[in-house]
Each structure stands twice: as C-alpha cells, then as structure tokens.
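Q: How would the structure tokens look for this protein?
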Amino acid sequence: MIVVTQNTYKCRLCGSEEYFLLLTGCKSSLGESYCLRKCKKCSFTTTYPIPAEETLKRCYNDSYWLSSKESASFLFKLLFFFRMRGILVELKRLIPRGGCVLDWGAGDGTWIRLIRRNGFEGWGFDQYAKIPNDKFLKQGTIETIKFPEHCFDAITCFHVLEHLTNPIDSVKKAMEMLKKGGIMIVEVPNIVSWGFEIFKGKWQPLEIPTHLNHFSLESLQKLFSIINNSEIVKVGFFSHRVSPSALALSLFPFFSPKKIRRIYDNKYPFFLMVIYLCVQLLFYPFAIIESLFKRGEVIRLYIRKTER
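A: Here is the predicted structure in token form.
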C-alpha cells in the first residue's frame, strides 16, 4: 500500500497530510464515484471528495426515513424495544432516574418517546428528518440548536458522527451541553469490522456519500482525546439494531429499506419485512462472534464528561 502526500489533503482529525487509499471506485446511489482515504497517523478514514450540501440533501429523501405508519406499528415498536433495551438498562444505571436526555440525530423521535415512557425527560433534534408535531423534537444541527450549557445528564448519538463535516467541533459543542459527570453514548459503524474486510465496497454501512467519516476504535479514541474533558468508560462492538442487518444487507442488498420504499411507494410490505427479519436472524451468530474479537459491525462508546 502506497503512502500519498498531497497538499490539498489534510486529515480532519489530526491534520496529517499522509494517507492510504483504502478503497477506490465507491459508487453512490446518485451514480457519483468516491474513494476512501485513511490517515496514516490516526487511522481516521474519510470519504473523498466530501460531497456538496445539495448532494446530501438529495440523498435524504423520503425513502431514507421510516414512514409514520411503519414507526407506529406494533411490530416495529416491539422490535425497537428489544433492540434498544440494553442501552436503556445502561442509561438507567448511569444517570439519575428522571434525568434529562438529548438525542442527537433523533429522526422521527422513536427513541425519545421510548425513554420518556421509561421515566426520563427526553429531547431530540435532527438536521434532515421530517420532524413530527412534537414539542420535544427540533429541526437543526448541533451548532444551530438552542439548548443551555450543562443541562443534560446524557446525550445519545447513534450513527451521527459518520455524517459530520467537522466532528471535532461538533462533539465539543455537544459536550458543552452535558452536565459534569454526564454520559454521552456514541455508536458508529466499525471500518475495521470483519464485515468490511469481507465485503469491501459492498459493505452496507459505508453508505456513500452520506457517511463522510469511517471510524475505527483507534480514531474514535483519538477524537475523544482531543476533547480533553472526556473519559471513555465502556466500549462495545455489537448492536441488536445494526449488526445483523449490516451483514444481511451487505450480502442481500435488495432488502435495504431505502430500496424497498422506493419500489413500494415509501412502504415496506409486511411479507418482505418478515423475510428480511428471518435473514437477519441467520447472521446473529456471526455478528456476536466478530464482536467478541472487537471486529464487530459497530463501535459503541460510553463517554463520561470529567471535571477537567
């Protein structure tokens, strides 16, 4: 693998100008071609070139999101609770009952509604999602949203950091909103997973071009070492919600919810959903095994805001 030095390239995490070409010829859903550049110094991997804002807006169309009918269905609510209950248990252990939680990248607010039903005060915001009529959900970015400093006991950040143009400044802004001793829960795809090693450019969590950043544990640790008032207290490599589906969709991309919604008028037919869930079950053992070797499909960090 050749190290390339180019004056126009600078790692958005450590500032180094040396990188590896990790992957080339990555095609987006819009037909554009991208590559992955991996920083030699900190292992942070970026999509290159960074797409324009207008390109990203075209990607976040209606098929990107669950319809309100899908998210309101009993089956969806049951599956979502099963997949998120582990995080809910950790949240109850780590912050006071009734604590205030902010969901960064809240989508339609499904997670916020679940944590509110479990005794927390929940707020959320999202940049691109169509926000429902809910006073606890806001439209905006971490830079534009208006919340006081030091007001949240926890911030959840599921599959958000990979979308950020400037992850350092955005995470710093989020940490300012946390109380001292507060917890940030971060989950991102793992670029050194066995799934990526096997599927390469067909690995579903690449999500080119909406995923601008591709993290390893090393690069995530580098990010939070720059945020010097933070301490990583727990690391995981498995997600009930993401790990089996990432493997299933890498091998059987037809079942991608975005593709199905485009075909079926923004709906995911029940019979296809049942087949898709059965396919995911087949991948559960592999997803669990790879996570035991720290090569799972995701990385989940629990970060405490320290006194420094």
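Residues 1-7 have pLDDT under 50 and may be disordered.

The radius of gyration is 19 Å.

Upvote if useful.
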